[in-house]
Write a structure and sequence with these properties.
There is one protein chain. With 404 residues, this protein is an alpha+beta fold. It folds into two domains: 175 residues, no CATH class; 213 residues, no CATH class. The protein has eleven helices and 16 strands. A hairpin with a 6-residue loop joins β15 and β16. α1 crosses α4, α6 runs antiparallel to α7 and α7 packs across α10. The two termini are 21 Å apart.
Length: 404
């Protein structure tokens, strides 16, 4: 199995400047390759430029710009060109499926924050000084950079990536390691119902509170954004020190919310994996759930529109985004795979409207957000617990019907 490790780097001032130059040169290479594809399609009889053609030009580019592009790893530059090729592949794939995707865009320096090294030892070397008590990663053109390795790396390092987050630098390792031993079986199964009032509710009746990290940080974030908005819009070279600090303040607050959300997702997913052998959850289409409501034209007044509940839907979408269901479910599946647990996603339709006793389905079974009262047999309970029970039942049925 493949596992990722992320460690904080401790570059010197000179190494930090070199890392910034590396990102800028890779960003320039990405944008130049994109421009070449655009020009070839528009002006040369709609000619398609592919990765192989652009990769073959790297040797001449490095020879011409030895002080710039020639300093960096050849394989990392190939990885940057592959990133652009994947962007175009995704663009054309979505067009064929009937979507309306945006054309691949040019990257600004602040929006290009990662350089990939496809192979450890080719332009980079993890733990380059094994006899040194301080872990270091060697990067071509940068040198041996100190790394704050807070846990051991188990397995063979396959790829290395350098990532900038604000004013900090991280190294991300992709490691191939054998399948770990599964956790001891507990004999317990569970269904979980995702929600807003509670982050999720289990079929055992446990309610996990929604931390609402975004709402908690909203006051500080609003003040930081207002402070940033007071600065006039000027070019990057004309920004003052206060302006740059205001930008970093807003970005740091967003990253803090993201880290807290990830920490909560990891802890809750680990709790479930340790306790249960089988976990069923709703197969949520989060992107569809967060779509804005369609406008309703007013036929009596041309050019006017009727109320469509966009404000209320916007608030719900913000709460869904703040909960981070997608991140949690991704982490849950990853942890369950390493622990030898089974996780199944089931159809979420009518899970909170179906009576677990008699099977009667009706919207009237849920008179309020929390209350469930079956209009057929009279069964009562908490709506989220009822939904979790139905999710578990559907998951067990699906597990039995799956081929071995």
């Amino acid at each position: 199995m493949i596992r990722a490790y992320k460690f904080l780097m401790r570059p010197t001032a000179g190494q930090q400047a070199a890392l910034g130059e590396m990102l800028r040169d890779h960003c320039s290479l990405y944008n130049a390759a994109l421009q070449e594809r655009r020009d070839a399609y528009r002006h040369v009889s709609k000619t398609t430029v592919r990765y192989g053609m652009q990769s073959a030009q790297l040797k001449d580019i490095r020879a011409f710009d030895g002080e710039g592009q020639g300093r960096w790893s050849f394989s990392s530059q190939q990885a940057t060109l592959r990133r652009l090729d994947k962007a175009f592949a995704a663009f054309f794939r979505r067009i064929k499926s009937g979507d309306t995707p945006g054309y691949p865009r040019f990257r600004g320096v602040n929006w290009f924050d990662t350089v990939d090294f496809p192979k450890d030892g080719d332009g980079c070397r993890w733990d380059s000084t094994p006899h040194d008590p301080v872990t270091r990663v060697r990067l071509q053109g940068v040198g041996h950079v100190k790394v704050n390795q807070h846990r051991p790396v188990v397995g063979k390092v396959k790829t290395v990536s350098v990532k900038r987050e604000g004013r900090k630098w991280f190294v991300v390792l992709s490691v191939e390691q054998p399948q770990p031993e599964p956790m001891p079986e507990t004999g317990l199964v569970v269904g979980i119902d995702m929600g807003i009032a509670s982050f999720f509710t289990t079929s055992d009746g446990e309610h996990v509170a929604n931390p609402r990290h975004g709402r908690t940080a909203a006051v500080k974030l609003e003040a930081a954004q207002q402070a940033l908005a007071r600065f006039p819009r000027v070019g990057r070279d004309k920004r003052t020190g206060n302006h740059k600090r205001a930008v970093h303040k807003v970005a740091d607050l967003h990253r803090k919310v993201r880290r807290r959300r990830l920490d909560h997702a990891h802890k809750r997913a680990l709790d479930l994996v340790r306790k249960y052998d089988f976990i069923a959850h709703e197969d949520l289409k989060i992107r569809n759930m967060m779509r804005a409501p369609a406008p309703k034209p007013d036929l009596d007044r041309p050019g006017a529109f009727l109320p469509n509940g966009a404000d209320a839907k916007g608030g719900l979408n913000h709460s869904i985004s703040d909960a981070g269901w997608g991140v949690f479910l991704t982490i849950l599946h990853a942890k369950a795979e390493g622990a030898g647990r089974e996780v199944i996603a089931v159809d979420p339709r009518n899970t909170s409207r179906t009576c677990p006793e008699c099977g009667h389905v009706s919207a009237e079974n849920r008179p309020t957000q929390e209350k469930f009262h079956c209009v057929d047999c009279g069964h009562q309970g908490h709506a989220d617990i009822v939904g979790a029970l139905n999710v578990l039942r559907a998951g067990l049925v699906r597990r039995e019907t799956q081929p071995a």
